[in-house]
Design brief:
By secondary structure, the chain is mainly alpha-helical. It folds into two domains: 18-211, Up-down Bundle (Alpha-lytic protease prodomain-like), CATH 1.20.1510.10; 215-330, Alpha-Beta Plaits, CATH 3.30.70. The protein has eight helices and three strands. It has helices spanning 18-42, 45-71, 86-114, 121-141, 150-179, 184-211, 221-229, 264-278; strands at 236-244, 250-257, 282-288. Strands 1-2-3 form a three-stranded mixed β-sheet, covered by helices on one side. The longest helix has 30 residues, at 150-179. The radius of gyration is 26 Å and the shape is elongated.
Amino acid sequence: MAHKHNHDGHDHAPADFSRAFAIGTALNLAFVLVEGGYGFIANSLALVADAGHNLSDVITLLLAWGGMIMAKRGATARHTFGFKKGTILISLGSALFLYAVIGIILWEAVARLRAPAEVNGMAVTVVAAIGVVINTVTALLFVSGRKNDLNIKGAFLHMAADAAVSAGVVAAGFAIMVTGWNWLDPLISMAIAIIVLIAGWGMLKESLHLTMAGVPAHIEAEAVLDYLTGLLGVQCVHDLHIWAASTTETVLTAHLVMPGGGDDDFLHHTAEHLHHDFNIHHTTLQIELEDGKGLCHTNNKSQGCCWPGKAAAPGAAQFQQSQPSTGGDR
């Protein structure tokens, strides 16, 4: 038996966005205080709703910042992966908190539609316009990391959505000034809530998926299986598991049945390929000289892994989707 972890000299630590988090948090916290205060003065639910949404973003930024710090903590005897999993839990918590804020906004908006209140359209327009600028600047701070880290992507989407929402509030304030239709204020608040709900669905879905040890969205498990079963000398693959250690790092474990065995060069090459072509950062491979468990066909080198106790049809490549094993490899 042989094991190989991918320690190939690449830095897997998440990029440091501490400065971006500090600037973004300070700007948005200051704006929340201004927007919320003017919202009450102008009697605008749209401004108060937007301020509440921006407050949720401040909390989101703080949580994501904390997650980034946790991801950099080293492993311990009791936490052998370190605390990187916390980044996934934080992204899930951020999404759930956002949905709670949406519920509060919708509840208040319905009440306001029944009894519209007088709204200062000018104050709404000016304050929301400031929000467009602040949210756009904050979103740009995270634009470079949105493709590689779910937490950074969450921060970017939150701020980009806020910029769009604030632009809608500007339009609502202007319309109220021109028409005097105060019912536009709660109507825009409901539109804000729906937009944010739709924008946050992807992050909530992906966070839940990763929390359940699902294969990260950017990795095609079948393609990984095809690569492993196509390696020279590999008779079949079983117990293939792919899951996220954090919002930026992916782990793979697999058993390769190789009657001729495999050396360190084979393990190094395979781990390198999985890293560069599939963005899998930590690979553990166990090489077995024979299929002692009877999980694989022994006459076809293209066979993939099989469900325990279920024979695969000739030429088939079935993917094992069970949870990653917590026990030792055997």
